[in-house]
Amino acid sequence: MEDMRTRRYQIIISGRLGAVCCEAFPDFHIAPHGTDTALTGDLTRSGLHDALTRIRDLALDLVGITCLAPELARVPGASGPRGAFTEPGPGKP
């Protein structure tokens, strides 16, 4: 069974991304990270694999991946196309 939980990831790419590469990652917040570029987004395991495939296909150099929020929980009643996510409070799974 596939893990459908959403987690927040930061993916660091070597150097700066041009406009074409930025368009390949519309679901990410893209920001400078020193001399590199940080892609930050909420992804399922499948979404993470898709992002890594795009990085490979664009011949970008992957510097690192960090899971910033290991467990994101959907907020009940949240609106929007993807809903809203928040980190669980202390003691909550």
Structure characterization notes:
The protein is an alpha+beta fold and 93 residues long. The protein has one domain: Alpha-Beta Plaits. It has 2 helices and 6 strands, in the order βαββαβββ. Strands 2-3-1-4 form a 4-stranded antiparallel β-sheet, covered by helices on one side. A two-stranded antiparallel ribbon has the order 5-6. The radius of gyration is 14 Å and the shape is globular. The relative contact order is 0.26. The model is unreliable at 75-93 (pLDDT under 50).
SSE layout and pairing:
Blueprint: E1 7-13, H1 19-23, E2 29-33, E3 36-43, H2 45-57, E4 62-69, E5 73-74, E6 85-86
Antiparallel strand pairs: 1-3, 1-4, 2-3, 5-6
Q: What descriptive keywords fit this protein?
A:
93 residues
Quick overview:
This protein is an alpha+beta fold. 19% of the residues lie in helices and 34% in strands. The longest helix has 13 residues.
CATH class: Alpha Beta
Query: Mind telling me the C-alpha Rg?
Result: 14 Å
Q: What is the number of helical segments per DSSP (H or I, 4+ residues)?
A: 2
* CATH topology heading: Alpha-Beta Plaits
User: Distance between the terminal alpha carbons, to the nearest Å?
Assistant: 20 Å
Which band does the percent of strand residues land in?
25-35%
- Major β-sheet annotation: 4 strands, antiparallel
Residues in helices, as a percent range: 10-25%
Report the principal-axis shape: globular
